[in-house]
Amino acid sequence: SEQLVDQGTFEHLPILKKIAPSSTGPRVKGKVVIVTGTNSAIGIGRASAHQFAQNGARAVYLCDYDDSNLEAHQREITSLYPGVDVHTRQFDAADEESVKKVVDDALKTYGRLDVFFANAGIVGQPKIFTDVSADEFLFTLRTNVVSVHLAAKYAAPAMMITSAEKKYPSGSIIGTASVAGLRSNAGSSDYSSSKAGVISLAQTVAYQLAGTGVRINAICPGVIQTGMTKMMYDAAKERGTEKKIGQLNPLRRGAHADEVARVALFLGSEESSYVNGQAWAVDGGLSAGHPFVP
Ligand code: NAD
Questions:
Q1: Nearest CA to ligand 1 atom 26
Q2: What per-residue string of b and e applies to 12-39 under the rule 16 or more CB within 10 Å gives b?
Q3: Quick one: signal sequence residues (predicted)?
Q4: Structure pTM?
Q5: Residue nearest to atom 6 of ligand 1 (CA)
Q6: Cα dist. 117→46, 175, 272 in Å?
Q7: Do the beta carbons of residue 52 and residue 35 sit within 8 Å?
Q8: Would you call 83 exposed, middle or buried from its count of C-beta atoms within 10 A (0-12, 13-18, 19+)?
């Protein structure tokens, strides 16, 4: 490879070496991070806020339309990681003004925005597509994919301002999609369409952001034990079929929100500096193949 560098084939490599992250230091040191969908006590958003705070973030914004737990989460994170500024915002992830306001707040307070994790989302009861009204469908699209569009629309320019002051520009937008956006989903056509939309949005926006240094990726969780799946787990428990949920997975278990949050941390850090426009399945292998077991 030395020879290839001498030949100029990889002349960009010395630059990449300079921005290669240290695996020993805090992974998101000094970064200003917005996470949406953080109210749920067992959700992916709260777990991610912990990961960013624990790994050196300067500030973390906890945003959710339901703010009943936000202050408790703020107190908890502040007491565990005293160096981090934790802010709470009651906001609708799919409302343009709300998203613009939190991004403006971050810029005004810190002069920078480094990570926007657009994680808020909803799922309705599983339904046959003929029973899904146009209004329901639009509501799901609005919450699950318009929210990621708005995050990218306002975060990317803010990250570019931040980037202009840096030698090597960076900035990371992350949207929560789902394995339901990658493969067929027996549950709900509105949900899977919205999550496929998040993946497509990330792919397209990654290209449109070319040259800015800002990256965008989608995370595709499998079946994770959170507020969203609680009803499913509770119903399965009542039927005595709870174990079956894990048994369908190649790892033979379900997952905790933290297992998704650690991937969000990776995508928000410089460790993923060359990862862009991708859909990251975090599903124990569920989407890797056909679930049929003879
Ligand atoms: P959760 O229900 O525990 O958390 C979702 C949070 O989003 C809640 O706190 C809710 O109040 C918030 N929210 C919903 N609509 C909002 C809006 N318009 N504005 C602001 N906040 C809003 O569920 P979770 O599993 O942690 O969900 C996080 C993300 O992960 C969602 O996008 C979901 O679709 C996705 N996901 C979850 C699973 C899973 O198995 N749990 C699988 C695939 C994808």
A1: 43
A2: eeeeeeeeeeeeeeebbeebbbbbbbbb
A3: none
A4: 0.92
A5: 37
A6: 11, 6, 15
A7: yes
A8: exposed
Decide: 160 in ligand 1 pocket, CB within 6 A.
no
Give the Cα separation of 171 and 20 in Å (integer).
15
Task: Give the 3-state secondary structure percentages of the chain, helix then strand then coil, rounded to 5.
Answer: 50, 15, 35
Q: Over 50: is that where the pLDDT of 1 sits?
A: no
Q: What is the DSSP string of 85-152?
A: EEEEEE--TT-HHHHHHHHHHHHHHHS---EEEE----------GGG--HHHHHHHHIIIIIHHHHHH
Region 220-232: mean pLDDT is: 93
ipTM at complex level: 0.99
pLDDT beyond 50 at 70? yes
User: Which one is catalytic: 154, 191, 207, 233?
Assistant: 191
Q: Which of 26, 32, 181 is nearest to 104 (CA)?
A: 32
Active site residue 191: yes
